[in-house]
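Render this sequence as a predicted structure.
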Amino acid sequence: MSASESPTPPAAETPAMAQYAAAKRRHPDALLFFRLGDFYELFHDDAKVAAEALGLTLTARDRERKVPMAGVPVRAADAYLRRLLAQGFKVAICEQLTDPSEAKGVIERDVVRVLTPGTLTEDEALDPRAANFLLALRAPGRKERRRKAGLAWVDLSTGRFVVADVEPESVVDELARVAPAEVLLPEGEEGSAWAAHVKDVLPRAAITFVPPWTVEEEAAERALLEHFKVATLKAFGLDRMPPSVAAAGAALEYLRLTQRTSLGHVTRIERHDPAGTMVLERSTRRRLEIVERADGSRDATLLSVVDRTKTPMGGRMLRDWLLAPLTSREAIQRRLDGVEELVQDAFLRRDARAALGEVRDLERILARVATQRASPRDLLALGHSLSALPRVLAPLAGAYSRTLADLRQRLETFDDLAQRLLATLVDDPPPVITEGGLVRAGVDAQLDQLRDLARNAKDWIAAYQAAEAARTGIASLKVGYNKVFGYYIEVTHAHRDKVPAGYVRKQTLTNAERYVTPELDEHEKKVLTADERARELERRLFVALRTAVAERMAPLQATAAVLAEVDVLASLAEVAAARDWVRPEILEDRTLELRESRHPVVEALLAGGERFVPNDVALDAEKRIALITGPNMAGKSTYIRQAALLVLLAQAGSFVPAARARVGLVDRVFTRVGAEDDLARGQSTFMVEMSEAALILRQASARSLVILDEIGRGTSTFDGIAIAWAVTEYLSEVVGARTLFATHYAEVTQLADELPSVFNLNVAVREWGDSIVFLRRIQPGTADRSYGIHVARLAGVPDAVVARAREVLATLEQAQGGAAAALKAPTPAPAPPRDLQLGLFAPPPPHPAVEALRAVDVERLTPREALQRLADLKRLSEG
């Protein structure tokens, strides 16, 4: 969403409105907050849009032309800005660049920053435990069919900058994983398929169209070289100019144009290799509820169970680990080594976590330092955080694992900087530097003198008032001060005749007169000058302090990253120790063995001492497809999802809820779970189900883990059985992926007799009269009944309906008893037509059209080639 692009306002009648018109022309797609004194004002269409979005009163600046106007106080602007950005608007801030009290003529104004959803740095507007990414997409052109897409995403609030080159068909999954707040596309892509993909995958993200030249590789390379002050991009792995270079350049140029300030905290580029992490396509992330539920809530998610981090940086890193589990055994083992030592050494874990609790969000504080938006409170928080580093380092001194020892070596302390910050700033500084009073006494001698002069003003005024009262004989004489008239002497009319000749009248009131004397005027100038000089000196001291921090930006950021990793490892260890989780054994083969495994989220949510019933999972290269049958509500879905979550946890580097876990590396996890439609794209529930099944069958590999909860339920019974049967065969014979398939089609379980890779499991239940008891135990074999009518009865369906359902079921079972046998029996060869005589010798050769048709590679045909081939086949069949 963007501001209305209204036509250029009529010729301005005032210099201020001329400034407004010029600024608006430079930023037509943003709401322009124009500073006029203590208010930000909006005019014309901007005023109308903002008034509706914020509930403001719409007024008029010029009664004759009736220019619409709306405004917000400068002091309260942040709250209004957050609301606009949450609705997808961009806002350009046009500030007063000169002090109105010192300006001669028109106050100079200019746009100092453009706020967009993807460029926020303020804590109040951001989720502390989630990144706020701006993502640029450089899609392959129509003539670049085999080229990859380039992605670059940057979090301005932390300085993290990541690039990736991915296959075009994987862009959607990467967009969903990164979940940026704003996406950059080149102008001209407004109606493209790529823009449609972004809107589909990220309905809440803002889309911004940037000039095409920003995504040209040469311009992008120059921008990156200039920013990082290097001669080549080889250090970032970008020397061969992959498409991600163009995306990175576009993102950097956009930040330059909108922020108008230093980007000194963007010090490096990470290269994300999709091959190094497990692929979790968006439906899998949604169905497994890894970091959020369908409604956007984080309650009852995997992240909510394992996140016991003490710092916001750790919380963000843990989220990244869960959304991108590793596929390198060595890298996974490194994480597990650190978690294991922290599990075994409770004192190490306790002391490290206690010290981490004193550390604030270093990454975002440093970002505000680099962009010159850090407040005195930010620097004080930085000082306290740095002072806690020795207490984080101390417990790690005896660490024996290579993981923690390496982190200990990389953890740098900044004792000198911490001491300077804490010694300079007061314990409770003001939120902005213009208010003064942020520097401790004794830091600067000149500042102390100026403060003494301002502080002693009250004593001087009291003495002066007493002296003048005695000299004039006016006991009620008062000396006061206000911002409009400055210092004054007030004398009531009753004593007007006693006023000395040296008093100069300044203001007349109803009952008194106010005067000024040369001595009082001189003192006023001295006091006010001292206060202004003190504030200016404090500002310079603060800027020097901020600069000292900025000069050590790179090592400070590296330390923040180390603290985040220690925090994540300690969090995973805390969960493992508290919930009795075990270290998984990571293998290179296709084993998946989980003994007495539990669902991490369901177990955590059980109340009242209820115990989760553990179950085993056993898959390997030979027995790789488990068909699970049993009634609804018995626990089939929980069982198959918990297997996927435990694999995900293991490859993220976490312990898992089981008695034993052996996990062969998984490259992708696919899920087909639940029933939902997509009305926006005109897809029924069954169409969505089949689309997801098609994706799995085409993209899964022998290294993948496939989780299926019902296939074919959205169509007729026989159609559904046929589809489920064929899908299972394909997964077994062609794909070879480890699969957990929960189904109500008992007929499909007969595949265990036909295919060596398939075996049956069922959920144990116990009948008790007309009721059933769910035992939640997975056992070998098939369920003899589906118990659907029993579940209907438990759900409260009227008894009459339940009774009638039993009658209908008995009739249907009798009528269709031979269906399963027909599926199992081999398909007979078709009988030859009656009017053909059987040949005595070998059958005739096949028709040339049939031979040509068999030679067609359907997967590689383009639409044009397909039409040409069809025409050739038609000619062959006729000739």
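Summary. The longest helix spans residues 518-550. Residues 1-12, 677-682, 825-842 have pLDDT under 50 and may be disordered.
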